[in-house]
Specification:
globular; 2 domains; two-stranded antiparallel sheet; 20 helices; TIM Barrel; 11 strands; alpha/beta
């Protein structure tokens, strides 16, 4: 592999240039597979960094969505940006996204992964960003690639037992993500909201104070000339619906507390959804009634009074198809999508039944303690099968090309529908005008460079 790379790329003074993009594209399947499953951690990291520098040389550039969101804060542009959490088959799914993006001229789209997902999918930030950029190269995509840390959440029970340790963990995760070129970070300290306090400002105080502290940390460590897009959150997803008073209390409190120039670019709110949807005893999903009027009011308020891009909707991927056109109509700036893609993969008729059963048996054995009292087996499997991606990652990657192609065709149809409903087709030009990618050069470790210096 290295010998072939030597013929297609040139390394001079630590900088990579690509002599033959077609050859690099054709090699990428093998290169990224070898990197993901390299057992030597030093070599693995080195290969990831090499792939990322190749991607930048090919025109796929990790970027911040800040410029676009600042424009949306001045004048809503009529579309809602999809933020997609890819939990499994990440390379293949990302390739499918990029194919649809190129076909529909989509510029406004985000790949993201949450704190919890990083753990159970076994995708640390460097791996996740590298796999996505490798997919961009494979599909010939050139332009800004928005990669986001979703729900970098302060876990309430951890915070209450040891607040310093919990915040230090989040600070470390943010640093790891930014180093991996996640230039979009969502801070979620809404778990600290205390509804027992006498007024809304005091209820939101621990939320906006910790968000401000972590936002200042981001501004201190972000690369030169890169303004990381930072999101906040006022209502924990799955709780009561957010209100204008909560929005104002949080944003006013943040503004007074935050010591910096650029603060938040967006705000996540609660309007009735739950992450993953609500699963019924037979394994089917309950219908969710989302409060679009709340979303409209809060998004308008966030833009008009605070110049944010608008509000963000979480837990939306399992909504019925007819609901998605409502997000642009209500001025929602961003919508987070995750479980729906996972469901398409697991429920596909093309996924070999014996492999699905192997995963479900693994889950029943390894996560048996997580089954709640009164929960049916269908409910338990639905709520837990997301944890089947990480431990069995290699088996997922080793599925036959024929199987993966058929599943990706199903996912491709879903991405097309979402992009149409969210009205992000033909957004390449507005992204080009508002986002100026900054290439942050990363040093490639000597363990890889030695191959090119021989």
């Amino acid at each position: 592999m290295i010998k072939k790379l030597q013929e297609t790329i040139e390394v001079k003074d630590g900088t990579i240039s690509v002599k033959d993009r077609t050859s690099v594209r054709n090699m990428m399947d093998r290169i990224i597979y070898n990197a993901v499953f390299e057992t030597n951690e030093e070599k693995r990291k080195a290969l990831f960094l090499l792939i990322k520098e190749i991607a930048k040389a090919c025109g796929a550039m990790p970027s911040s969505v800040q410029g676009l969101y600042e424009e949306m804060g001045k004048n809503y542009l009529g579309f809602t940006v999809p933020a997609m959490n890819i939990r499994g088959l990440t390379y293949d799914v990302s390739r499918t996204v990029f194919r649809k993006v190129l076909e529909m001229e989509v510029g406004a789209f985000i790949f993201e992964i949450a704190r919890s997902e990083i753990g159970y999918t076994k995708q640390r930030p460097l791996e996740y960003s590298t796999v996505i950029l490798a997919a961009a190269v494979r599909e010939g995509f050139e332009g800004p690639v928005f990669i986001q840390g979703d729900h970098f959440q302060v876990v309430r029970r951890n915070f209450l037992s040891n607040p310093d340790a919990e915040i230090d963990y989040i600070r470390g995760l943010i640093a790891e993500a930014i180093d991996a070129e996640f230039y979009n970070i969502d801070i979620d300290s809404s778990t600290l909201v205390d509804l027992e306090k006498p007024n809304v400002m005091e209820q939101q105080r621990p939320n906006f104070e910790k968000t401000a502290e972590l936002a200042e940390h981001i501004r201190k460590i972000q690369p030169t000339n890169v303004d990381v897009s930072i999101g906040g959150e006022i209502g924990e997803i799955g709780g009561k619906n957010s209100t204008p008073d909560e929005l104002r209390a949080y944003l006013d409190g943040f503004k007074k507390t935050f010591k910096g120039v650029k603060g938040l670019s967006k705000l996540s709110v609660q309007t009735g959804t739950t992450h993953g949807g609500v699963v019924l005893p037979d394994g089917s999903l309950a219908k969710v009634k989302i409060d679009f009027e709340t979303l409209r009011v809060l998004s308008d308020l966030a833009r008009r009074e605070y110049r944010l891009s608008g509000c963000v909707q979480h837990g939306a991927s399992t909504l019925p198809e007819e609901a998605f056109n409502m997000f642009p109509e209500t001025g929602t700036s961003e919508v987070h999508l995750a479980t729906g893609f996972q469901n398409i993969i697991y429920d596909s008729k093309h996924l070999p039944g014996e492999f699905r059963n192997e995963i479900y048996n693994f889950i029943k054995t390894e996560f048996a303690k997580e089954k709640k009292e009164g929960q049916t087996e269908e409910q338990f499997i639905y709520n837990t099968r997301k944890k089947g991606f990480g431990p069995l990652k290699k088996k997922w990657w080793d599925l036959s090309d024929e199987v993966k192609e058929l599943i990706m065709k199903e996912l491709g149809s879903r991405f097309q529908l979402l992009f149409e409903k969210l009205k992000v087709g033909e957004t390449v030009e507005i992204v080009r005008k508002t986002v100026k990618p900054i290439i942050v050069k990363k040093e490639i470790p000597a363990v890889v460079m030695s191959f090119f210096n021989d």
